[in-house]
Write a structure and sequence with these properties.
The structure is a homodimer. Helix content of chain A is about 35%, strand content about 25%. The first copy, chain A, has about 425 residues and is of the alpha/beta class. In chain A, strand 1, helix 1 and strand 2 form a beta-alpha-beta unit. About 5% of the residues of chain A have low confidence. Chains A, B: GO terms for molecular function: mannose-1-phosphate guanylyltransferase (GTP) activity.
């Protein structure tokens, strides 16, 4: 079993422009219940991590979302999360989660590093695990097992990621290539073999490299090779290791978050944060740490075979709803399936009548929605915006959303 | 020039279920401005016929639509219709149109026959022309020329129809096959040749037969043959000829409408109407008169090459809007065409943003409508119903609408 206390970190940022108009700037994706489960993605993430945490999870979010995040953390859904048995952090005001406000978006590395710096100040050897606030994960037991293995690998000093077993040649995800003993850090071959054996003993593997989203042909080669996993953006690492490695890569960033953490709990905190934060390098953890550390043989991977999706666009969401029919499907009226309705998923209260249609409908109004002969559409019906989108073009939505401001429609974002 | 006075008759019935939810039971197709012209289909029909009429047109409509029809007839748009110069009918209360109320729908023959009976009572030799209230016609001059020719052929004693030059192998329309001298009524071959020459002299031709909507292969043969026209449901005939022929085919129906007409203008009218109307045979003029008279060599056709459409469903409407860009197109916001918008027609006030989309949008709310990558869709956005329909399945809409009642959604029809 792992020895070091485990503190989940949840960077909750990103509007999710490819899920507009469900997601808006003021009400981003992580605050949404996209699957009709009764809990938002953030609440599901907290519920998933609660039983694994030794300390209250830290949610890092934009200052404009602190109020909404606080409300969701304190809601009855979040109450259902088992409280971490040993949570004792004096700094938290809510035992279910600590919420850190980012004065402005600086990508994921500053957010995670700030949380790591707070943890390091309190318990330098603690292991943090960073998990996106807006992903879906299917199997809690498999997830818990993989996190436990990752904590043990992190205690060996590695930056550890979970590698999701790919089930199709997805082009919307990044990939991780498994390495071998020789790719690990170590001054001799024997050292490296020993390091690999130690990783294997806890259920982990060396990582050779991270790969950006591939095109279709490359994704098919990755799938065929059997040595590539999907990158779910999950990182498990000792707080001190993360900050020391970051100090070697981007010294100012590590120094900045340690300065802010040093002021936490004091009267100067807000001043230090406001002064320091805007000067931190805006960079994703992938580029700041994961890629350079993989090249240096300091990244390990725990193979994980639970269902996972970043629900990055409406095509992904439609797939999720189709594969997990317990979620939102079957709601709505209309002729029964055998009566030529087709394959229509309904999320929300919408009353949907359909003939010969394949579609996913997100109904946020009390309007009746009728579909005839449509194929592969996502339809989002809200009070001020109606979206009709071909799932196969789902990635293009962000371009349309980006154009709203210059059309004087910025209030709809 | 024609000699007999000409009285247009406009049966205004039929909800237009394949244009739901634009058309509703309480607000049927003929009351709608489907093309953004500023005038409803009924108003356009009246405006088209006004300059040709010698007496006020007669609109026959369901009792529940009399109020709405009256309002449209009297609206500023209808005021723009040139008043018939010689309109003198004492029975009319509005010089722009006489409105006859049907107590219940009995298909087109009773409606047209009742109007014919009223005309016959006032001017037995007058020629009536029956025109649907909800069709679109493109070229007023060509239309006027064809009607004038049809009036002259009607004065020869024929039931005359306009045969629209087909421009594609449409499967949604009925067809009319041209005949020759031998198909005309006449006791000798010389009679028949003479009759044909008389028809040709006024620009008309014999009709061999009426054909119901064909399948695609048959429609292609019709188009290739060059002797088939589209049946626009336009009939021009002397009032007395229509009723005498009807008396031979369905005596009770002719007697019934003559009884009602005899009571018109008296205190007994409503009683006679209420008592007689429900007993009239519910039948379309095509089956009651056009088909049997064609078989008897008593139907003539005036070839007409103006643009015509019955706008029977959303596919037809989309085609109309696309071919007549002056109508509703170009409204709405969104990126310009050159910016990847695609081909989006907008009718109504809807503000539409589109990327790579082919669609027709009918916006009756102030919501922003966003389209991404959709092809061949019609989208109707109203306060209580949203319809998304694949144009190639447009005919199936009536099946969905027919199912609303049993789903407890009859109030949406």
């Amino acid at each position: 079993m792992p020895q070091a206390p485990f503190v989940p970190v949840i960077p909750a940022g990103g509007a999710g422009a490819r899920l507009w108009p469900l997601s808006r700037r003021a009400h981003p994706k992580f605050l949404l219940d996209l699957t009709g489960s009764g809990a938002s993605l953030l609440q599901q993430t907290l519920a998933r991590l609660g039983p694994l945490a030794d300390r209250a999870p830290i949610v890092v979010t934009g200052v404009e979302h602190v109020e909404a995040v606080t409300a969701q953390v304190q809601s009855p859904v979040a109450d259902a999360v088992p409280a971490p048995g040993t949570a004792t952090s004096a700094a938290t005001t809510d035992p279910r989660a600590r919420i850190l406000a980012e004065p402005s978006p600086r990508s994921s590395m500053p957010a995670i590093a700030l949380a790591a710096a707070l943890v390091e100040r309190e318990e330098p050897d603690a292991v943090i695990g960073s998990f996106a606030a807006d992903h879906l994960i299917g199997d809690q037991d498999a997830f818990a097992g993989a996190v436990t293995a990752a904590r043990r690998a992190a205690e060996l000093g590695y930056l550890v990621t979970l590698g999701i077993e790919p089930t199709r040649p997805a082009t919307g995800f990044g990939y991780i290539e498994q390495g071998a003993a020789k790719t690990l850090a170590g001054s001799t071959a024997a050292d490296r073999r020993g390091a690999e054996a130690a990783l294997r003993a806890v259920g982990a593997r060396p990582v050779a490299r991270f790969v950006e989203k591939p095109d279709r042909a490359r994704a098919e080669r990755f799938l065929a090779a059997g040595t590539f996993s999907w990158n779910a953006g999950i990182f498990v690492v000792r707080a001190r290791v993360l900050l020391d490695e970051l100090a070697a890569q981007i010294p100012g960033l590590a120094r900045g978050v340690r300065d802010i953490a040093a002021a936490h709990g004091t009267a100067e905190y807000d001043d230090v944060l406001e002064r320091t934060w805007p000067r931190l390098t805006s960079i994703a953890i992938d580029h700041a740490l994961a890629e350079p550390l993989a090249a240096a043989g300091k990244v390990a991977l725990v193979p994980a075979d639970f269902a996972w999706d970043d629900v990055g666009d409406f095509a992904a969401l439609a797939r999720q709803l189709r594969e997990a029919p317990a979620a939102g499907t079957g709601a709505g009226g209309g002729p029964a399936a055998g009566d030529g309705r087709g394959d229509v998923q309904v999320l929300g209260a919408a009353d949907v009548g359909a003939l010969s249609s394949t579609a996913t409908v997100y109904g946020a109004t009390d309007r009746h929605i009728a579909l005839v002969g449509v194929e592969g559409l996502s339809i989002v019906d809200t009070e001020d915006v109606l979206l009709v989108l071909a799932d196969e073009r789902a990635q293009e939505l962000s371009r349309l959303v980006a154009g709203l401001d210059e059309q004087g429609l910025g209030h709809l974002r």
